[in-house]
Amino acid sequence: MIDSHCHLADRTFAGDLPDVVSRARDAGLERALVILEASNEQEAAQADRLIAIWPEARVAVGVHPHQAHQFQDDPNRAAREVRAQFDRTPEARAVGETGLDYHYDYSPPEVQRAVFRAQLKLALDLDRPVVVHTREAEEDTIAVLRDAGGGALRGVLHCFTGSPELAAAALDLGFYISVAGIVTFPKAEPLRDTIRAVPLDRLLVETDSPFLAPVPHRGKRNEPAYVARVVATIADMHAIEPAEVARRTAANFHSLFRP
C-alpha cells in the first residue's frame, strides 16, 4: 500500500515520528507522499528527519490556496519558491498541494487562480505531476487545469469529495482521483457512488493525515497506517480483495509519481 497524500512534516507528528513510521510499515505501507509547504523551514527539517527514518518516502512541494494571499504582489514568486525548494530536495516528485478553495476567505479567488496557474506552469516545466486541492471551486478548477495544458499536465485531485461531474472532467483530462478517509463515513454514500464509477486504474488512496481519520478512528489524529481502512472500504465497494486494491493503487502511484 501507498499513502499518496499525508502531512507527516506537520508539527503534530514531531514527537513520535519514528513510531508513526513503524506503524505504517507494520500496516504494509511501502511508502508515502508527504506534502510540504514551500519555504516552511520547520516542515523541510522534519521531512529530512522522515527521510532518514523512511528512505522510501517522497515529497511534494507547493503553495496551498490558503496561503496564496502571501503572493498577491507577485503570483509567480510562489512558483519560484517552489522551484527553489524542489531543486534542493532530491525526494521531491510533485508540485502541490495547490489549487482553489472558495470555502474559506483566506485568499481572494483571483489571487488563488493566479498562484495556481503559476504552479501548474512550473509542473509542466519540470515535467512533474501536480497535486490539486479543490473545494467549492469545481468549475474554476477544471477551467484552470484545461487552460494550463489539458492532456500535457499530469496530476491528481486529492481527498476527492466532489461531484460526479468533477470526477468525469478530471478523468477526461487524464488526472487521477485520490480517496481519503471520508469514504468510510456512514453518511458518505453519495461519495461512494461517485468513486464506484472511477476506474481502478485511475484511483489512488490517501489519509491526508493528520486530518480526516477514517472509521473506526474518526475523531483521532490520522496517520498513514490508517490508509488500510480506505483500501478495505474500496475493496468492499467493488467486492474484491483489499490486496487487489492495494496492488492496483500502488501501481497507479508509481505510474503517476515515478518514485
Structural overview:
The chain is an alpha/beta fold and 259 residues long. The chain has a single domain (2-257), classed as Metal-dependent hydrolases (TIM Barrel, Alpha-Beta Barrel). It has nine helices and eight strands. The chain has helices spanning 17-26, 41-53, 75-87, 109-126, 138-148, 164-172, 189-196, 227-238, 242-257, and strands spanning 2-6, 31-37, 58-62, 92-101, 130-135, 155-157, 176-179, 203-205. An eight-stranded parallel sheet has the order 1-2-3-4-5-6-7-8. α3 runs parallel beside α4 (109-126), α4 (109-126) packs parallel to α5 and α8 crosses α9 (242-257). The chain starts with a strand and ends with a helix.
Using the alpha-carbon principal axes, give the shape: globular
Helicity, in percent? 40-55%
Unreliable stretches covering 5 or more consecutive residues: none
Count of domain modules: 1
> What distance lies between the first and last C-alpha atoms, to the nearest angstrom?
14 Å
Radius of gyration: 17 Å
How many individual β-strands?
8
**Based on helices, strands and strand pairing, what is the structural class?**
alpha/beta
- Just give the CATH class: Alpha Beta
In short:
Helices cover 42% and strands 17% of the residues. The protein has an eight-stranded parallel β-sheet with strand order 1-2-3-4-5-6-7-8. The chain is α/β, with parallel strands linked by helices.
Walk me through the topology:
Blueprint: E1 2-6, H1 17-26, E2 31-37, H2 41-53, E3 58-62, H3 75-87, E4 92-101, H4 109-126, E5 130-135, H5 138-148, E6 155-157, H6 164-172, E7 176-179, H7 189-196, E8 203-205, H8 227-238, H9 242-257
Parallel strand pairs: 1-2, 2-3, 3-4, 4-5, 5-6, 6-7, 7-8
Helix pairs in contact: 3-4, 4-5, 8-9
